[in-house]
Amino acid sequence: MIEKLVMATNNANKLREAREILAPLGIEVISQREAGADVEADENGESFEENAVIKAQTVYDIVGLPVIADDSGLCVDALGGRPGVHSARYAPKGEECDKLLEELKDVPEDERSARFECWLVFMDYECLDVVTGSCEGRISTEKRGDNGFGYDPVFLYGSRTLAEMSADEKNAISHRGAAMRALYDLLKERYGE
Ligand code: ITT
Fold it and tell me: Hey, which of 33, 46, 168, 177 has its CA 20 to 30 A from 17?
């Protein structure tokens, strides 16, 4: 089984979550910077999958070790799936929840369905795998909770926002948790325990 992966991301929260999810499964995750790849990929793809492959390839070309890359985002039904692939650029960091609440201010509670999606790519020599995970919920009418990052304070899973959950609780139901566990299953099948 693979014991070490490089994660192609500059998002410290994603890195932390990947470590929390994969460490108990025996896989150490090191950051692209720790691996010597201090780069920002040009995320000009039109889909989560394309962008995840671009990120993985950018870092793999430098480090030459097994790499994972996560492209993820929030798709809001009342907005036709926006911000979707543009979630990171929807608003300045720290202002994304307020902007979303403002955009949805006239949308009734039963029309506020949304989902987080995660496309996770594994890249190694002659090897490219893509797995996905999603998390269904609704957009709240106010921010709640201090945990997590990004849109977590306005994403309701049941009666709580993701920002009101502990790290373990979020990882157990999140899009990233689902994708990381799917990747683990795939690697286990290929490389054994
Ligand atoms: P890297 O490209 O370096 O990995 P990034 O933050 O730019 O970092 P993405 O392009 O995949 O990553 O954008 C994902 C955005 O979607 C992220 O910045 C958040 O705003 C949002 N997002 C993704 N997963 C989330 C989560 O678990 N909780 C809250 N917001 C999330």
Answer: 46
